[in-house]
Amino acid sequence: MTTTPAAPMDDLPAADFYRYETLLSDEERKILLDARAFLRKEIKPLVNEYWGKAEFPFEYIEKFRGSGLAALAYEGYGEHKPACSHLLGGMLATELGRVDASTATFFGVHNGLGFYSIYYGGSQEQRDRFLPAMATMEKIGAFALTEPLGGSDVSGGMRTTARRDGDTWVLNGAKKWIGNATFADYVVVFARDVEDNKVKAFVVEKGTPGFRPEKIEGKIALRIVQNAEITLTDVRVPEANRLQNIKGFRDVAEVLRQTRSGVAWQALGVMIGAYELALDYAKERVAFGRPIAKFQMVQDLLVKSLGNITASWGMLIQLARLQDQGIFRDEHSALAKEYVAARMREVVAWCRELFGGNGILLDYDVARFFSDAEALYSYEGTHQMQTLIVGKSITGHSAFVG
Predict the structure, then answer these.
(1) Any domain includes 11
(2) Maximum Cα interatomic distance, the chain, rounded to a whole number of Å
(3) Residue 388 burial (CB count, 10 A)
(4) How many Å apart are CA 55 and CA 197, to the nearest integer?
(5) Omega before 82 within 30 of 0, i.e. cis
(6) Which of 173, 211, 238, 251 has the fewest CB atoms in 10 Å of its CB?
(7) pTM reported for the whole predicted model
(8) For the chain (length 402 residues), average pLDDT per consecutive 10?
(9) Quick check: helix, strand or coil at residue 291?
(10) Domain assignment of residue 88, yes or no
(11) Within this chain, do residues 381 and 256 fall inside the same structural domain, yes or no?
Protein backbone atom coordinates (compact mmCIF):
# COMPACT_ATOMS: atom_id res chain seq x y z
CA MET A 1 0.00 0.00 0.00
CA THR A 2 1.41 3.42 -0.91
CA THR A 3 1.84 5.88 1.93
CA THR A 4 1.15 9.57 2.27
CA PRO A 5 2.78 12.10 4.58
CA ALA A 6 1.45 11.92 8.11
CA ALA A 7 -1.18 14.50 9.02
CA PRO A 8 -0.31 16.98 11.77
CA MET A 9 -0.94 15.51 15.18
CA ASP A 10 -3.66 18.08 15.84
CA ASP A 11 -5.55 16.62 12.88
CA LEU A 12 -7.10 13.78 14.83
CA PRO A 13 -10.63 12.31 14.69
CA ALA A 14 -13.16 14.12 16.87
CA ALA A 15 -13.61 10.95 18.91
CA ASP A 16 -9.89 10.77 19.79
CA PHE A 17 -10.33 13.08 22.78
CA TYR A 18 -7.23 11.81 24.59
CA ARG A 19 -5.07 11.83 21.42
CA TYR A 20 -4.49 8.09 21.39
CA GLU A 21 -3.32 8.07 17.77
CA THR A 22 -0.21 9.99 18.84
CA LEU A 23 1.01 6.71 20.38
CA LEU A 24 1.68 5.37 16.86
CA SER A 25 5.05 5.88 15.22
CA ASP A 26 5.19 8.14 12.17
CA GLU A 27 5.36 5.10 9.87
CA GLU A 28 2.42 3.43 11.60
CA ARG A 29 0.31 6.57 11.40
CA LYS A 30 0.98 6.84 7.67
CA ILE A 31 -0.38 3.33 7.25
CA LEU A 32 -3.43 4.23 9.36
CA LEU A 33 -4.08 7.42 7.39
CA ASP A 34 -3.82 5.56 4.08
CA ALA A 35 -6.29 2.97 5.33
CA ARG A 36 -8.64 5.72 6.51
CA ALA A 37 -8.52 7.45 3.14
CA PHE A 38 -9.01 4.17 1.27
CA LEU A 39 -12.03 3.14 3.33
CA ARG A 40 -13.67 6.57 3.05
CA LYS A 41 -13.14 6.82 -0.69
CA GLU A 42 -13.56 3.25 -1.93
CA ILE A 43 -15.76 1.44 0.59
CA LYS A 44 -18.08 3.89 2.33
CA PRO A 45 -19.97 4.97 -0.85
CA LEU A 46 -21.05 1.35 -1.46
CA VAL A 47 -22.17 0.44 2.03
CA ASN A 48 -25.78 1.59 2.34
CA GLU A 49 -26.84 0.32 -1.07
CA TYR A 50 -25.59 -3.20 -0.41
CA TRP A 51 -26.62 -3.22 3.25
CA GLY A 52 -30.14 -2.36 2.15
CA LYS A 53 -30.14 -5.16 -0.43
CA ALA A 54 -28.41 -7.65 1.92
CA GLU A 55 -25.94 -8.38 -0.86
CA PHE A 56 -22.16 -8.55 -0.91
CA PRO A 57 -20.36 -6.07 -3.20
CA PHE A 58 -17.77 -8.29 -4.84
CA GLU A 59 -15.89 -5.23 -6.04
CA TYR A 60 -14.79 -5.00 -2.39
CA ILE A 61 -12.36 -7.84 -2.96
CA GLU A 62 -10.57 -6.15 -5.84
CA LYS A 63 -10.43 -2.88 -3.91
CA PHE A 64 -8.97 -4.58 -0.83
CA ARG A 65 -6.38 -6.35 -2.97
CA GLY A 66 -4.96 -3.00 -3.95
CA SER A 67 -5.04 -1.58 -0.42
CA GLY A 68 -2.30 -3.73 1.09
CA LEU A 69 -4.32 -4.14 4.30
CA ALA A 70 -4.48 -7.94 4.36
CA ALA A 71 -1.99 -9.94 6.44
CA LEU A 72 -0.26 -6.90 7.92
CA ALA A 73 -0.30 -8.62 11.31
CA TYR A 74 1.47 -11.76 10.10
CA GLU A 75 5.23 -12.11 9.99
CA GLY A 76 6.39 -12.84 6.47
CA TYR A 77 3.05 -12.39 4.69
CA GLY A 78 1.90 -8.75 4.86
CA GLU A 79 2.99 -5.95 2.59
CA HIS A 80 4.84 -4.27 5.49
CA LYS A 81 7.50 -6.47 7.13
CA PRO A 82 7.98 -7.27 9.93
CA ALA A 83 4.39 -7.71 11.11
CA CYS A 84 2.69 -4.56 12.36
CA SER A 85 2.25 -3.96 16.08
CA HIS A 86 -0.94 -5.07 17.79
CA LEU A 87 -1.68 -1.40 18.43
CA LEU A 88 -1.65 -0.56 14.74
CA GLY A 89 -3.56 -3.74 13.91
CA GLY A 90 -6.22 -2.79 16.43
CA MET A 91 -6.53 0.75 15.14
CA LEU A 92 -6.90 -0.58 11.60
CA ALA A 93 -9.74 -2.83 12.80
CA THR A 94 -11.29 0.26 14.39
CA GLU A 95 -11.11 2.14 11.08
CA LEU A 96 -13.03 -0.69 9.43
CA GLY A 97 -15.72 -0.65 12.12
CA ARG A 98 -15.88 3.14 11.97
CA VAL A 99 -16.98 2.92 8.34
CA ASP A 100 -19.08 -0.25 8.40
CA ALA A 101 -19.38 -3.22 10.76
CA SER A 102 -20.27 -5.59 7.91
CA THR A 103 -17.09 -4.71 6.05
CA ALA A 104 -15.10 -5.10 9.26
CA THR A 105 -16.65 -8.53 9.77
CA PHE A 106 -16.01 -9.69 6.20
CA PHE A 107 -12.39 -8.61 6.50
CA GLY A 108 -12.02 -9.98 10.03
CA VAL A 109 -13.34 -13.41 9.06
CA HIS A 110 -10.92 -13.62 6.15
CA ASN A 111 -7.90 -11.90 7.67
CA GLY A 112 -8.44 -13.00 11.26
CA LEU A 113 -10.35 -16.22 11.81
CA GLY A 114 -9.61 -17.86 8.46
CA PHE A 115 -6.02 -16.69 8.02
CA TYR A 116 -4.98 -17.14 11.66
CA SER A 117 -6.43 -20.66 11.82
CA ILE A 118 -4.04 -21.72 9.06
CA TYR A 119 -1.16 -19.52 10.27
CA TYR A 120 -1.36 -20.96 13.79
CA GLY A 121 -2.78 -24.40 13.08
CA GLY A 122 -1.12 -25.36 9.83
CA SER A 123 2.23 -26.95 9.11
CA GLN A 124 4.85 -24.89 7.28
CA GLU A 125 3.90 -26.68 4.05
CA GLN A 126 0.24 -25.78 4.59
CA ARG A 127 1.06 -22.16 5.38
CA ASP A 128 3.15 -21.93 2.23
CA ARG A 129 0.37 -23.52 0.18
CA PHE A 130 -2.65 -21.55 1.40
CA LEU A 131 -1.55 -18.24 2.88
CA PRO A 132 0.22 -16.34 0.06
CA ALA A 133 -2.97 -16.22 -2.00
CA MET A 134 -4.98 -15.27 1.08
CA ALA A 135 -2.49 -12.51 1.90
CA THR A 136 -3.13 -10.91 -1.49
CA MET A 137 -6.86 -11.76 -1.27
CA GLU A 138 -6.70 -13.78 -4.45
CA LYS A 139 -8.34 -16.41 -2.26
CA ILE A 140 -10.90 -15.64 0.45
CA GLY A 141 -11.15 -17.53 3.72
CA ALA A 142 -13.88 -18.47 6.18
CA PHE A 143 -14.12 -20.15 9.58
CA ALA A 144 -16.78 -22.77 10.34
CA LEU A 145 -17.14 -23.56 14.05
CA THR A 146 -20.69 -22.68 15.18
CA GLU A 147 -23.40 -25.26 14.53
CA PRO A 148 -27.21 -25.06 14.27
CA LEU A 149 -27.54 -26.64 17.72
CA GLY A 150 -24.27 -25.46 19.21
CA GLY A 151 -22.99 -21.95 19.77
CA SER A 152 -21.37 -21.19 23.12
CA ASP A 153 -21.45 -24.90 24.01
CA VAL A 154 -19.89 -26.14 20.77
CA SER A 155 -16.66 -27.13 22.55
CA GLY A 156 -18.40 -30.00 24.30
CA GLY A 157 -21.32 -30.56 21.97
CA MET A 158 -19.85 -30.50 18.47
CA ARG A 159 -21.97 -32.74 16.25
CA THR A 160 -20.01 -32.42 12.99
CA THR A 161 -17.87 -35.53 12.65
CA ALA A 162 -14.69 -36.52 10.85
CA ARG A 163 -13.85 -40.12 10.00
CA ARG A 164 -10.44 -41.19 8.66
CA ASP A 165 -10.58 -43.26 5.48
CA GLY A 166 -7.06 -43.96 4.23
CA ASP A 167 -5.49 -40.71 3.08
CA THR A 168 -8.78 -38.80 3.27
CA TRP A 169 -11.25 -37.68 5.92
CA VAL A 170 -15.02 -37.88 5.55
CA LEU A 171 -16.93 -34.99 7.14
CA ASN A 172 -20.62 -35.05 8.02
CA GLY A 173 -22.71 -32.49 9.87
CA ALA A 174 -23.77 -28.86 9.69
CA LYS A 175 -22.48 -25.39 10.54
CA LYS A 176 -24.36 -22.12 10.94
CA TRP A 177 -23.67 -18.37 10.86
CA ILE A 178 -20.52 -18.88 8.82
CA GLY A 179 -19.45 -15.52 7.36
CA ASN A 180 -18.11 -15.44 3.78
CA ALA A 181 -19.01 -19.11 3.33
CA THR A 182 -21.24 -18.62 0.28
CA PHE A 183 -18.24 -17.57 -1.81
CA ALA A 184 -15.07 -18.38 0.17
CA ASP A 185 -12.30 -20.34 -1.52
CA TYR A 186 -11.05 -21.92 1.72
CA VAL A 187 -13.35 -22.75 4.64
CA VAL A 188 -11.70 -23.98 7.83
CA VAL A 189 -14.17 -26.55 9.16
CA PHE A 190 -13.93 -27.93 12.68
CA ALA A 191 -15.14 -31.48 13.30
CA ARG A 192 -14.90 -34.09 16.04
CA ASP A 193 -12.83 -37.16 15.14
CA VAL A 194 -15.02 -40.23 15.76
CA GLU A 195 -11.93 -42.26 16.66
CA ASP A 196 -10.36 -40.19 19.46
CA ASN A 197 -13.20 -37.66 20.10
CA LYS A 198 -10.75 -34.75 19.57
CA VAL A 199 -11.66 -31.63 17.59
CA LYS A 200 -9.69 -31.31 14.36
CA ALA A 201 -9.65 -28.68 11.61
CA PHE A 202 -9.83 -29.13 7.85
CA VAL A 203 -9.43 -26.71 4.95
CA VAL A 204 -12.38 -27.45 2.67
CA GLU A 205 -11.83 -25.95 -0.75
CA LYS A 206 -14.55 -24.32 -2.80
CA GLY A 207 -16.45 -26.78 -5.00
CA THR A 208 -15.74 -29.86 -2.88
CA PRO A 209 -18.58 -32.39 -3.44
CA GLY A 210 -21.03 -32.65 -0.54
CA PHE A 211 -20.19 -29.19 0.80
CA ARG A 212 -23.34 -27.07 0.47
CA PRO A 213 -23.53 -23.50 1.87
CA GLU A 214 -26.88 -21.71 1.83
CA LYS A 215 -27.21 -18.00 2.58
CA ILE A 216 -29.12 -17.13 5.74
CA GLU A 217 -31.89 -14.69 4.88
CA GLY A 218 -33.82 -12.15 6.94
CA LYS A 219 -31.00 -10.71 9.05
CA ILE A 220 -31.41 -7.29 10.65
CA ALA A 221 -27.68 -6.87 11.30
CA LEU A 222 -24.48 -7.21 9.24
CA ARG A 223 -26.62 -7.50 6.15
CA ILE A 224 -23.67 -7.23 3.78
CA VAL A 225 -22.01 -10.27 5.36
CA GLN A 226 -23.03 -13.45 3.60
CA ASN A 227 -23.60 -15.79 6.54
CA ALA A 228 -24.36 -19.34 5.56
CA GLU A 229 -25.75 -22.52 6.98
CA ILE A 230 -23.49 -25.27 5.70
CA THR A 231 -24.50 -28.88 5.19
CA LEU A 232 -21.66 -31.41 4.96
CA THR A 233 -22.63 -34.74 3.44
CA ASP A 234 -19.78 -37.23 3.04
CA VAL A 235 -17.38 -34.40 2.26
CA ARG A 236 -14.01 -35.96 1.46
CA VAL A 237 -10.97 -33.90 2.45
CA PRO A 238 -7.38 -35.07 1.94
CA GLU A 239 -5.15 -35.57 4.97
CA ALA A 240 -2.96 -32.87 3.42
CA ASN A 241 -5.77 -30.38 4.22
CA ARG A 242 -6.07 -31.32 7.89
CA LEU A 243 -4.41 -28.54 9.89
CA GLN A 244 -1.62 -30.41 11.57
CA ASN A 245 -1.29 -28.29 14.71
CA ILE A 246 -4.97 -28.25 15.67
CA LYS A 247 -5.10 -31.18 18.09
CA GLY A 248 -8.08 -30.34 20.24
CA PHE A 249 -10.41 -27.56 21.34
CA ARG A 250 -7.61 -25.85 23.26
CA ASP A 251 -6.10 -24.94 19.91
CA VAL A 252 -9.44 -23.63 18.68
CA ALA A 253 -9.62 -21.51 21.84
CA GLU A 254 -6.20 -20.07 20.99
CA VAL A 255 -7.52 -18.86 17.64
CA LEU A 256 -10.51 -17.25 19.35
CA ARG A 257 -8.30 -15.66 22.02
CA GLN A 258 -6.33 -13.86 19.34
CA THR A 259 -9.25 -12.82 17.16
CA ARG A 260 -11.60 -11.82 20.00
CA SER A 261 -9.50 -8.76 20.69
CA GLY A 262 -10.03 -7.72 17.07
CA VAL A 263 -13.79 -7.80 17.60
CA ALA A 264 -13.38 -5.45 20.56
CA TRP A 265 -11.45 -3.02 18.34
CA GLN A 266 -14.21 -3.29 15.72
CA ALA A 267 -16.79 -2.50 18.41
CA LEU A 268 -14.79 0.62 19.28
CA GLY A 269 -14.96 1.58 15.61
CA VAL A 270 -18.74 1.18 15.59
CA MET A 271 -18.98 3.47 18.61
CA ILE A 272 -16.77 6.06 16.93
CA GLY A 273 -18.72 5.89 13.67
CA ALA A 274 -22.04 6.42 15.43
CA TYR A 275 -20.65 9.20 17.64
CA GLU A 276 -19.20 11.13 14.70
CA LEU A 277 -22.53 10.97 12.91
CA ALA A 278 -24.38 12.17 16.00
CA LEU A 279 -21.94 15.00 16.66
CA ASP A 280 -22.21 16.31 13.10
CA TYR A 281 -25.99 15.97 13.14
CA ALA A 282 -26.27 17.84 16.44
CA LYS A 283 -24.36 20.77 14.99
CA GLU A 284 -26.48 20.89 11.83
CA ARG A 285 -30.00 19.98 13.00
CA VAL A 286 -32.05 23.03 14.01
CA ALA A 287 -34.97 22.82 16.44
CA PHE A 288 -36.71 25.68 18.23
CA GLY A 289 -34.57 28.09 16.23
CA ARG A 290 -31.13 26.80 17.20
CA PRO A 291 -28.82 23.82 16.60
CA ILE A 292 -29.74 20.94 18.89
CA ALA A 293 -26.07 20.84 19.97
CA LYS A 294 -26.99 23.79 22.23
CA PHE A 295 -29.42 21.67 24.25
CA GLN A 296 -28.21 20.23 27.53
CA MET A 297 -29.70 16.76 27.06
CA VAL A 298 -28.13 16.44 23.63
CA GLN A 299 -24.73 17.35 25.06
CA ASP A 300 -25.31 14.77 27.80
CA LEU A 301 -25.79 12.02 25.18
CA LEU A 302 -22.66 13.09 23.33
CA VAL A 303 -20.49 13.32 26.43
CA LYS A 304 -21.61 9.91 27.72
CA SER A 305 -20.81 8.45 24.31
CA LEU A 306 -17.38 10.06 24.25
CA GLY A 307 -16.68 8.75 27.74
CA ASN A 308 -17.43 5.17 26.67
CA ILE A 309 -15.24 5.57 23.59
CA THR A 310 -12.33 7.05 25.53
CA ALA A 311 -12.42 4.41 28.28
CA SER A 312 -12.68 1.56 25.78
CA TRP A 313 -9.82 2.92 23.69
CA GLY A 314 -7.57 3.10 26.77
CA MET A 315 -8.37 -0.51 27.71
CA LEU A 316 -7.64 -1.75 24.20
CA ILE A 317 -4.33 0.09 24.01
CA GLN A 318 -3.13 -1.68 27.15
CA LEU A 319 -4.43 -4.97 25.74
CA ALA A 320 -2.31 -4.39 22.62
CA ARG A 321 0.73 -3.79 24.82
CA LEU A 322 0.14 -7.09 26.61
CA GLN A 323 -0.06 -8.82 23.23
CA ASP A 324 3.16 -7.22 22.00
CA GLN A 325 4.87 -8.25 25.24
CA GLY A 326 3.65 -11.85 24.90
CA ILE A 327 1.85 -11.86 28.28
CA PHE A 328 -1.68 -11.74 26.89
CA ARG A 329 -4.16 -14.32 28.27
CA ASP A 330 -7.70 -15.53 27.52
CA GLU A 331 -9.23 -13.43 30.26
CA HIS A 332 -7.62 -10.28 28.90
CA SER A 333 -9.31 -10.57 25.50
CA ALA A 334 -12.54 -11.78 27.14
CA LEU A 335 -12.79 -8.72 29.41
CA ALA A 336 -12.07 -6.39 26.48
CA LYS A 337 -14.76 -7.97 24.32
CA GLU A 338 -17.28 -8.01 27.19
CA TYR A 339 -16.67 -4.42 28.23
CA VAL A 340 -16.25 -2.71 24.88
CA ALA A 341 -19.18 -4.50 23.25
CA ALA A 342 -21.45 -3.49 26.15
CA ARG A 343 -20.30 0.13 25.91
CA MET A 344 -20.86 0.02 22.16
CA ARG A 345 -24.44 -1.07 22.68
CA GLU A 346 -25.03 1.97 24.91
CA VAL A 347 -23.37 4.41 22.52
CA VAL A 348 -25.25 3.37 19.39
CA ALA A 349 -28.54 3.62 21.29
CA TRP A 350 -27.73 7.12 22.56
CA CYS A 351 -26.61 8.25 19.11
CA ARG A 352 -29.69 6.82 17.43
CA GLU A 353 -31.83 8.56 20.04
CA LEU A 354 -30.19 11.89 19.24
CA PHE A 355 -31.41 11.63 15.63
CA GLY A 356 -35.04 11.26 16.66
CA GLY A 357 -37.20 9.86 13.86
CA ASN A 358 -34.38 10.25 11.35
CA GLY A 359 -32.45 7.71 13.38
CA ILE A 360 -34.39 4.83 11.86
CA LEU A 361 -33.62 5.85 8.26
CA LEU A 362 -30.75 4.15 6.48
CA ASP A 363 -29.93 7.43 4.73
CA TYR A 364 -28.60 8.80 8.01
CA ASP A 365 -26.28 5.79 8.60
CA VAL A 366 -26.80 5.65 12.36
CA ALA A 367 -29.57 3.04 12.01
CA ARG A 368 -27.04 0.72 10.38
CA PHE A 369 -24.60 1.12 13.27
CA PHE A 370 -27.45 0.59 15.74
CA SER A 371 -28.53 -2.66 14.08
CA ASP A 372 -25.06 -4.03 13.42
CA ALA A 373 -24.01 -3.55 17.03
CA GLU A 374 -26.33 -6.39 18.06
CA ALA A 375 -24.33 -8.88 16.03
CA LEU A 376 -20.95 -7.71 17.35
CA TYR A 377 -22.35 -7.92 20.88
CA SER A 378 -23.05 -11.64 20.34
CA TYR A 379 -20.42 -13.12 18.07
CA GLU A 380 -16.99 -14.49 19.05
CA GLY A 381 -18.45 -15.28 22.45
CA THR A 382 -21.55 -13.76 24.01
CA HIS A 383 -21.41 -11.19 26.81
CA GLN A 384 -22.25 -13.93 29.32
CA MET A 385 -19.52 -16.31 28.11
CA GLN A 386 -16.88 -13.58 28.36
CA THR A 387 -18.09 -12.87 31.89
CA LEU A 388 -17.64 -16.53 32.85
CA ILE A 389 -14.11 -16.61 31.43
CA VAL A 390 -13.11 -13.54 33.41
CA GLY A 391 -15.02 -14.69 36.48
CA LYS A 392 -13.14 -17.99 36.57
CA SER A 393 -9.85 -16.10 36.31
CA ILE A 394 -10.49 -13.71 39.17
CA THR A 395 -12.21 -16.14 41.59
CA GLY A 396 -10.47 -19.37 40.77
CA HIS A 397 -13.87 -21.06 40.43
CA SER A 398 -15.57 -22.11 37.21
CA ALA A 399 -19.26 -21.23 36.90
CA PHE A 400 -19.64 -22.96 33.53
CA VAL A 401 -22.46 -25.49 33.37
CA GLY A 402 -21.54 -29.05 32.40
Answers:
(1) no
(2) 78
(3) 18
(4) 38
(5) yes
(6) 238
(7) 0.93
(8) 49 94 96 96 97 96 92 80 87 98 97 96 97 96 92 75 97 97 98 96 98 98 98 98 94 88 96 98 97 98 98 98 93 96 98 97 98 94 90 92 64
(9) strand
(10) yes
(11) yes
